[in-house]
Amino acid sequence: MARTPRDRAPRTTSAAPASAGRRTGNRRRYSQNFLTDPAVARAVVRASGVGPADTVWEVGAGEGMITRHLLPACAHLTAYEIDPRLAATLRRRFGGRVRVVRADFRTAHPPSAPFHVVGNIPYAITAAIVDWCLAAPSLRSATLVTQLEYARKRTGGFGRWSRLTVLHWPRFDWRMGPRIHRDRFTPVPRVDSAVLLLRRRDRPLLPREALGEYRRLVETGFTGVGGSLRASLRTAAPVRRVDAALAWAGVPRGALVAEVSPDQWVRLFAHLHRLEPGTG
């Protein structure tokens, strides 16, 4: 069982400083901040919603704080850990109950069967992990501990929406889960964290054959031409059609692109292409 810093017994042997130095060096090398609070780990697992029939891949398993709570919650658990020392620790701790893979998660090939991703991921590779999840055809959900600012940015927490969220909204629901204070990690990071929840929709909000055209419209809108979304879209469609679609979607004519919610984007696209939203 992993222990918090205050629970660790003091080390009195001469080897302690060198051992501590190696752990610190590994953490810095792999950009790791380990969860130390079992209650937070349990909250992450609850937020994931994984069940007894599910296959789960854990990214950045570290010392196994989340792993030990995931194990009884799912049917099959694979733990990815790039640090060889930590991977060995996981194997000793969980034996054959967890498949431990010592590798960079970003190089993994997703399984063909449905699966879920859960993990306390290194801040430095958050974008790459999210991109990997979005590209995995069989992924059902991803529950990721990220920097608080990143989770807010991807879920409209600042009253503004990111291009990435809008692009994938017809297929994925994005939500922010529990906030996690920075003192629940070691080493203590400079910022708080939060749980980012990605859920693949059972049915896309738009017909599958329209998703490519939707992405092209979003890319056009985010070019920033003319300042407002209306000005950008006028380069791709007649102004009357653009104005009618904006009105239908409830978007003010002067709205900046980041102020337009993903649901408004879906309605906007559907009106421009005379589609019924939610018919995927």
Automatic annotation (TrEMBL):
Entry binding sites for S-adenosyl-L-methionine: 33, 35, 60, 81, 104, 120
Residues annotated as domain Ribosomal RNA adenine methylase transferase N-terminal: 40-202
Entry keyword set: Methyltransferase, RNA-binding, S-adenosyl-L-methionine, Transferase
Pfam family membership, one: RrnaAD
Transmembrane segments: none
Family annotation (SUPFAM superfamilies): S-adenosyl-L-methionine-dependent methyltransferases
PROSITE patterns: RRNA_A_DIMETH, SAM_RNA_A_N6_MT
Membership in a protein family: Belongs to the class I-like SAM-binding methyltransferase superfamily. rRNA adenine N(6)-methyltransferase family.
Record-given protein name: ErmE/ErmH/ErmO/ErmR family 23S rRNA (Adenine(2058)-N(6))-methyltransferase
Organism: Streptomonospora mangrovi
Lineage: Bacteria, Bacillati, Actinomycetota, Actinomycetes, Streptosporangiales
Annotated gene: erm
